[in-house]
Amino acid sequence: MSQIFVSVRQQYLQLFAASSRHIATSSRPHSEASKAEKPFRSLRAFVRSAKQETPEPIATSISGEVPKWIDGSLYRNGPGLFEVGNEKYNHVVDGLSLLHRFNIKNGQVTYQNRFLRSDHYIKNMKANRIVVSEFGTVGHPDPCQNLFQRVLSRFKMRKGSENCNVNVMSIKDEMYAMTESPYIWRIDPKTLESVEKLDITEFLAVSMATAHPHYTNDGTHYNMGSSYGKVAKYNIIKIDPADAGQPLLQKSSILCSIPGRGRDPSYYHSFGRTDNYFVFVEQPLYINVMKILKATLFRTSFTDIIEYKPGNKVRFHVVNSRTGEVHSTEYTADAFVCFHHINAYEDDGHIVVDLCTYKDEEGIYKASVEEMTKAEYVPTQGSKIMRFVLPLTVDKKAGIHNLVKLPNTECSARLEDDGSVFCVPERISDAVMELPQINYASHNGKPYQYSYGINGDASEIKKKDFKNKSYKAWGMDDYIVSEPVFVAAPSAGSEDDGVVLTALVSDDPSKKPHLLAILDARDLKEIGRAEINVDMTSSFHGMFIRNT
């Protein structure tokens, strides 16, 4: 049964919801409170296609200064092709994966990109049309198939998308392109060539894995994946570094399995990790597995299978990261939708969880190519930063009294009659922020002060100061910014001692080149930039890998 329903997860979990109130851009850092509102702008640059690859590294023109201590490569992954032949994809998450590499060394920057040679890419290019369905786009029958083969294809449930266009992961000296399916693609970190496709179901009894793994200093990676049946299960996956010559997943295992509410699994895009715990948020955004057959048999969009049930509460599951034991207390909250965790950490017997949250699922549908290419993009809402505090020790006699004992927080928690703990969050700010990044190496799972992200229409980089409850912002007119990536300075003296790297896509490349901007992470002042005069597209996620 679980294998029958696998494909829905992969068809739809590559979600991106860019929606917010627009804050005017500036090439200087500024206080958000001083900015006046402007109309929303079109996001057509976000869904532009690359007409050709740049597989060999090319030199870029440098303005300002690229600090010579930056020695490594920024890798980015995202949809880079929205048209095949005369046909177009319908949703921002559907485009075929384009991998990017910015190699930074001795104050210089080179750039290259290459399409991932997934099965989806190869089949579509061969047919010169879209023959493989994605989340919001229904593929046409393969013209090379006869009538019998086409009929049979309607009854064949794919294991998931191989168009790994969401993120990249590095383990030892290997790199992998990822989406939220059972597949990951090993790519050559120097040439970006597609090397090998791995299927996680050949090693573990799970149907998928997220594109947001966590990792530790010893090279161990953790991820989450669901398995489906009469009751859905959410599995925490542990991946030990493989020995030389062994497949990546040879030493993988399931640390624990968390039972769901019922048959229909909750959607999740990421999860949290502290020094001693994992935090999984089970939200009331579901995949209706019975509707998968309809989507397959009648070639309808997989958007039909998503169901948001705001009458159901969110459940927070806390798992001991060493033993895999699930905490006996069930934590709940009023319904919301979340794609990205910012950070989680332990503080005096509590777990603090910071999330980018939405009030409902509407942002999924507003991220269609049609909506994003309008003269003015009109989102319905924006992602707000919410903080939840989960008390690890629960006084069963507390009654209606607040269980949260931390100072300097508006969060509260109360014991319910059924023994669960209902959590009320603190709304950190009215400002919108998505694609959050932190100083991961030193502060993931630990108390922290700063997070970097983008605003709702991707016109600005933002820096959130959680201690002082303030923002800084940086942007450039006529550009789309990408997820900011923090790189710590050698012998950094503070949490924000380093740079933020962001790739900027020009609204009109014939007039202004694409850019890689290097910002001082402390004040978001621009230090330098690299100008790129070849096709470059926007991207979802990525990471910086130091040269060795």
Put the structure in a nutshell.
The chain is built from seven helices and 37 strands. The protein is mostly beta strands and 548 residues long. The strands form nine sheets. Strands 2, 32, 33, 34, 35 and 36 form a six-stranded antiparallel sheet that branches. Strands 16-17-20-21-26-25 form a six-stranded mixed sheet, with no helix packed on it. The protein has a five-stranded antiparallel sheet with strand order 1-7-6-3-37, with no helix packed on it.
Report the oligomer.
Answer: single chain
Tally of DSSP β-strands = 37
Count of runs of 4 or more consecutive helical residues = 7
Residue share in helix: under 10%
> Beta-strand percentage?
35-45%
What Rg, in angstroms, do the CA atoms define? Answer: 22 Å
Q: How many structurally independent domains?
A: 1
Which class do the helix and strand fractions yield?
A: mainly beta
Mean pLDDT, to the nearest integer, reads 85
Uncertain segments are: 1-39, 144-157
Shape: globular
Largest sheet: 6 strands, antiparallel
Task: Measure the end-to-end span.
Answer: 46 Å
